[in-house]
């Protein structure tokens, strides 16, 4: 049986992210999992994710790197602390820094493989290297600095809660 994706184990109150939130019907709903010591996600861009005809928009690629990086940080933290992920347990990470190098045009039409590798991990911070691969060719490389989510970014923090309520989520 396939293991549940990291993002599917996030608590409801942090599951509205445009890149990976399972409760965001308009988002990408990226799903990341372990593959040995690395992490992997697959995403198939749609024709409306076009940059120039036939090629994927860079902002989409950046958001895949972003959400796969923060999810990898959360999962690696759980693994390091010996705590399984789960709705009451998820260690929460947000993006402090997102760097992406677009090495070559990313073809539109097939699935993209997104691979993550933890470079450094402390209790508060992870640095994750991410590759975006199309048909065996690395098209983009990124690096995410993910930091434990501050209380001020929680779902009950002011306007965020009201916006999600208004959206019916
Ligand atoms: C389960 C939860 C899932 C959540 C949904 C998925 C997340 C989706 C990904 C996103 O898009 S999140 C949205 C975009 N990110 C933000 O809006 C974050 C806004 N920034 C902040 O709230 C704060 O700046 C942040 C929490 C990131 C850091 O503030 P802190 O006061 O906690 O950081 P601090 O200055 O104490 O630094 C902690 C460590 O991070 C490092 N750091 C902080 N900002 C950095 C930066 N910009 N670049 C590189 N490193 C940075 C800093 O050097 C330090 O490293 P060391 O521990 O090694 O000393």
Overview of this structure, please?
By secondary structure, the protein is an alpha+beta fold. It has a single domain (6-166), classed as Roll (Thiol Ester Dehydrase, Chain A), CATH 3.10.129.10. 19% of the residues lie in helices and 31% in strands. It has helices at 58-81, 159-166, and strands at 32-35, 38-43, 93-102, 112-121, 125-134, 137-148. The chain has a 6-stranded antiparallel beta sheet, covered by helices on one side. A hairpin with a 2-residue loop joins strand 5 and strand 6 (137-148). The longest helix has 24 residues, at 58-81. Residues 158-162 have low confidence and may be disordered. Bound molecules: decanoyl-CoA (MFK).
Bound molecules: decanoyl-CoA
Low-confidence stretches: 158-162
Q: What is the H level of CATH, i.e. the homologous superfamily?
A: Hotdog Thioesterase
**Average predicted confidence as pLDDT:** 92
DSSP, total strands: 6
Strand content: 25-35%
Main-sheet strand order equals 1-2-4-5-6-3
Described by its quaternary structure, the protein is single chain
Give me the number of helical elements.
2
Radius of gyration from CA coordinates = 16 Å
- Share of helix, binned: 10-25%
Along the chain, the helix and strand elements come as EEHEEEEH
CATH topology: Thiol Ester Dehydrase, Chain A
- Tell me the major beta sheet: 6 strands, antiparallel
**What top-tier CATH class fits best?**
Alpha Beta
What would you call the shape?
globular
Question: Which CATH architecture?
Answer: Roll
The figure for the number of domains is: 1
Class from secondary-structure proportions: alpha+beta
């Amino acid at each position: 049986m396939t293991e549940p994706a990291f993002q599917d184990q996030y608590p409801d109150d942090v599951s509205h992210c445009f890149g990976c939130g399972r409760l965001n019907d308009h988002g990408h709903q990226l799903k990341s999992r372990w593959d040995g010591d690395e992490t992997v996600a697959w995403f198939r861009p749609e024709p409306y994710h076009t940059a120039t005809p036939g090629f994927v928009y860079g902002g989409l690629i950046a958001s895949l790197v972003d959400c796969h990086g923060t999810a990898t940080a959360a999962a690696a933290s759980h693994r390091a602390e010996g705590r399984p992920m789960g709705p009451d347990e998820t260690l929460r990470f947000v993006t402090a820094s997102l760097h992406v190098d677009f090495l070559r045009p990313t073809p539109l039409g097939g699935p993209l493989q997104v691979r993550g590798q933890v470079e450094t991990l402390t209790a508060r911070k992870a640095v994750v290297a991410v590759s975006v691969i199309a048909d065996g060719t690395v098209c983009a490389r990124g690096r995410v600095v993910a930091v434990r989510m501050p209380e001020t970014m929680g779902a009950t923090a002011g306007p965020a809660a009201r916006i999600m309520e208004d959206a019916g989520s």
